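Entry type: protein chain
Record version: 2
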Amino acid sequence: MGVAIRAAGEDDRELVVRLLDESFQNDPVSAWVFPGADHRRRTHPRLMAAFTDLVLAEGRVDVTEDGAACALWLSVAADDHAGGPDDDGPARLRAAVDPDNERVELIGRLTAGVHPAGRAHEYLWMIGVTPGRQGEGLGTALIESVLGRCDRENLPAYLEASSDRSRRLYERLGFARTGPALDLPDGPRMWPMWREPRPPAR
């Protein structure tokens, strides 16, 4: 039996924020951005809310019908050069989320710096599965639903894996490392990954 998936709307905002917060509280990159556990519990939801608001406004959020998992996608144009030195998005994010925490801004600048340019693609910004439901294939179903469209439309896809476990999942779905790994200062490693569209089966 397949996983039922639908596009999220504004009414789903709190659900998506909660899913992302629960899913990433113990993620290596989230722990680097917010090193103190107590501070992370208080502040991390604000970062997830900012990401959710951005993607609801500019991209697409998919949720499983049972509310156990979500995926945030942005369509990136070939000529999109966001993330340069004049991009004030990361600074605005820091000011809104945690003004005294330079890592909130730094993570945005570092990931933008390794993001491929020159080809239109779908960008998997984040995917979250509630901890009690991980390992059931919900994340895979969410990703495959968009990858199927990418294949039909001859679009590549891109993401940054934030853990060994997620990197292995993405490799099974056809993603491969692109360029050097991103080593966060005094922190964990992230893996930029790219997937070329697959030709239709004959």
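Comment: The longest helix spans residues 37-58.
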